[in-house]
Amino acid sequence: MKSIKVHLSYIDDVKKIVESANHMKCDVDLVSGRYVIDAKSIMGIFSLDFSKPITLEIHGNDEEADNFIKEIKDYVVEE
């Protein structure tokens, strides 16, 4: 599993994350506080607080996770 921080500001950001996650064979979750939301669920994502970065967890192999991270690189927050 790989874990990164992402920042989503606009509806189009959420759409891109959902679209990219739906191409994945593995599970992708967004974690904010005690809430864990399936990143393939656009309705679930909109229940999160976008005022701060959100943890994105990719439950796949390293190659698959790295490809996904490259696809969403515009939203990744460097720590």
Name some characteristics of this structure.
single chain, 79 residues, alpha+beta, Histidine-containing Protein, Chain: A, 3 helices, globular
Main pleated-sheet profile: 5 strands, antiparallel
Fraction of helical residues = 25-40%
Strand content: 25-35%
Based on CA atoms alone, the radius of gyration comes out at: 11 Å
Can you tell me about this structure?
The chain has a single domain, classed as Histidine-containing Protein, Chain: A (2-Layer Sandwich). The protein has three helices and five strands. A five-stranded antiparallel beta sheet has the order 3-2-4-1-5. Strand 2 and strand 3 form a beta hairpin.
SSE layout and pairings?
Blueprint (H helix, E strand, L loop, with lengths): L1 E5 L4 H12 L4 E6 L2 E4 L3 H4 L8 E6 L2 H10 L4 E2 L2
Antiparallel strand pairs: 1-4, 1-5, 2-3, 2-4
